[in-house]
Amino acid sequence: MSVDVHTKVPLFDVRALTRVFGHGESAVHALRGIDLELAEGEVVILLGPSGSGKSTLLNILGGLDAPTQGSVKFAGRALHDMDERELTDYRRTWVGFIFQFYNLIPSLTARENIELVTDIAVNPLPVDEALAMVGLSHRGEHFPAQLSGGEQQRVAIARALAKRPRMLFCDEPTGALDLKTGVLTLEALMQANHAFGTTLMIVTHNADIARLGDRVIHFADGRIREIVHNPVRAKPADLHW
User: Fold this and answer.
1) Of 119, 123, 111, 199, which is closest to residue 163 (Cα–Cα)?
2) Is residue 227 domain-resident?
3) What domain range is 49 assigned to?
4) N or C end: fewer C-beta atoms under 10 angstroms in the chain?
5) CATH classification of the domain holding 101
6) pLDDT of residue 219
């Protein structure tokens, strides 16, 4: 299945977005005038070398960073118009984050790590359902040190999914995984897209993962160089890397 982005109301509307770190001759231009729309339920892959602006864009859309210039609207609401309390509510309620490093609390079990989210979410998934979605129903009482890297990543995904986010940002979610565990991780993400209509943005260096997306956005030097539309999404099991 592939999403037709031309028939969807944009979930995100990004216009003339720039991000500059530092000043003067030492300034780093991480983003240089990005225009982009993201549709509800779309899977978007950001592809490009390190330092090309992919993670910076993800952090701004997720409310973790602010642009130097330009605008970002989520469901018609400008993020730059939100105060700190509203931004906190936005991050807590509407968006989820998955990173290459799992950020689990080592003194808590897998179940307890997920409960950190379900205890504050507005309409959370039951913890057992979140664990089942990532194939870890039998590992809920294990601590992170008792889990493999792939299992820890899937706990991190379950934690993100437990609050039913409309948007899920994934920064190199398979970067530290082998093929088998990487496929399991991607299958969990695609299941969330299918089951809940969650919009996915996946940052990666892996060109083969690009086959999973409705669109592949190629980044270089802080700019969008090319957008490729996939008529049909590949399945994680079809990937080779």
Assistant:
1) 123
2) yes
3) 40-64+91-238
4) N
5) 3.40.50.300
6) 93
